Amino acid sequence: xxxxxxxxxxxxxxxxxxxxxxxxxxxxxxxxxxxxxxxxxxxxxxxxxxxxxxxxxxxxxxxxxxxxxxxxxxxxxxxxxxxxxxxxxxxxxxxxxxxxxxxxxxxxxxxxxxxxxxxxxxxxxxxxxxxxxxxxxxxxxxxxxxxxxxxxxxxxxxxxxxxxxxxxxxx
Amino acid sequence: xxxxxxxxxxxxxxxxxxxxxxxxxxxxxxxxxxxxxxxxxxxxxxxxxxxxxxxxxxxxxxxxxxxxxxxxxxxxxxxxxxxxxxxxxxxxxxxxxxxxxxxxxxxxxxxxxxxxxxxxxxxxxxxxxxxxxxxxxxxxxxxxxxxxxxxxxxxxxxxxxxxxxxxxxxxxxxxxxxxxxxxxxxxxxxxxxxxxxxxxxxxxxxxxxxxxxxxxxxxxxxxxxxxxxxxxxxxxxxxxxxxxxxxxxxxxxxxxxxxxxxxxxxxxxxxxxxxxxxxxxxxxxxxxxxxxxxxxxxxxxxxxxxxxxxxxxxxxxxxxxxxxxxxxxxxxxxxxxx
Lengths: 171, 338
Hints:
With 171 residues, chain A is of the alpha+beta class. Chain A has five helices and five strands; from the N terminus they run ββαβββαααα. Chain A has helices at 41-48, 104-111, 121-134, 140-146, 157-170; strands at residues 20-26, 29-35, 67-70, 73-76, 89-91. Chain B has 338 residues and is an alpha+beta fold.
C-alpha cells in the first residue's frame, strides 16, 4: 500500500550528528564507544561490543528477549539509547557466571529444562536475576506476574517458574 | 528511525530553553514509548533532549499532607515507595497493573502522562489518522475498533489513553506541576488530558515548550477502601479494555465520599463527578453501585467491534465498588476476580 499520509517533519534536512562518546562498564569491563545517537543499548551490545548473548526479538519492548541489567535493574535494552546510559554498569547474560561456575539461575534453567529453542533464555535469566534482586516475588503467582514481560514462544513457562523458584530458594 | 540530534539538559531551565529554541524537539526520559514510536516513524523529532539527569527523582511529603512525586521517578520505584504503598495503594496497584517489570523500571512518572495511544492506525503510517496526520481522517471509526473509546469520542478520533497509572491519579485528584518559558504552573489532573474533539493531535493541555516537573497528590488517599480493577485480553502485560479505579470513605453503612475513574474507555482517564454524586450519601449495596454505573455510562456509544465495552464497564464499575466497599482490593498477582 502506498504511503498516502506521511507524518509531518521539519523541512530543513537534519545535519548528520557527530558520533557521541559513550562509556559503559559491561560485565565489569570498562568500554569506550563512539556511537550515533540512535544506537540502542541492544545494538551497542550486539553490534559494537560483539556480545550477542542478548537477543533481539521484537525490538519494541514487547518480548523481553533483550532484557539486561543496568545498574542492577532489569530493563529492555531495545528501548533505551546507548548515549542515555553513559557511565552505567551493564550486566548481560555473558556476565552472570563467575569463572567456570554457572549463576544459580543458569544452573536452575538446566536442572528444570526451562527452555526449548533457547532464544528467549538470556532475557528470561537476566529478568529473573532482576526479579530476585527486587525481592517482591513470594509466590508462583508473583513470579508469573513479574515475569510477564518475557515471552517464551515454546511455552516453557511452567519450567521457567520452577527454575526461578529453585534459584530464589538459594538466594 | 530517522536521523536526529541528541543533547543533554543540565537543569529544568536549560531543558525549557532548549525546547523553546527547537519546538519540534522531544524530551526523552524513560523513552519506552517515544523510542518505540520513533522506530515506527510515528514520531520524528529532529532533536532529542535527554532530561534523565535532572533532579526530579524524589518522592516527598508536602506541607498539605500529600505527596509530591518528581517527574523522573520510575514507575516501579513509585509503586513500591512506602508512602505510596501505605497512603495511596490505589495508585500503587494501578501502576503494577500496567506494562511489565522491565518497562516500569525505566518508564518515568511524567512520561507515563505523555505516552500516546496504542490505536493500531496511529501506529500504522500507511493509514489515515487524524492524531498522527491532522485532517487525514480516522481509520478506526469504520475499521478495527475493538480497543477503542466509548465515551467522549468525536468524528475525528476514537482513540483511548493507554495509561493505568493516570486513571488512579485522576481519581485521587492529583495535580501536574509544569515549567515553561514564562514560569511554573499547576494543572488539575482531570484538566491535563484532552478529549479529541477536532484536535486529536493534541493529547494534553501541556504547552509545546513546557516540561512536567512533578505530580502532586492531596492528602486524601482512600487507603482503606479502594481497588484498581482491570480487564484485558490476557492476564498480564496488556492494555486495558476497561479498568476502574474506585475509592470509598464509609460512615454508618453509607458512602461519605467517593472517587470513580475509568481507563480504556476514552481519550483521557474518565472521571465523572455526577456518578460520584450518585454514590455520595447512599447505602452500600448493588442498587447504589448499578445506579452510579448507569449515570457514568449514560452517553456511552459503541462502534462496530467495541460495544461490548459498555456492558463490561457497567459490570466492572459494580464489581470495583463492591471490592472497595468490602476492603478487598483486586490483587495484581492472583487475577481471580472476587
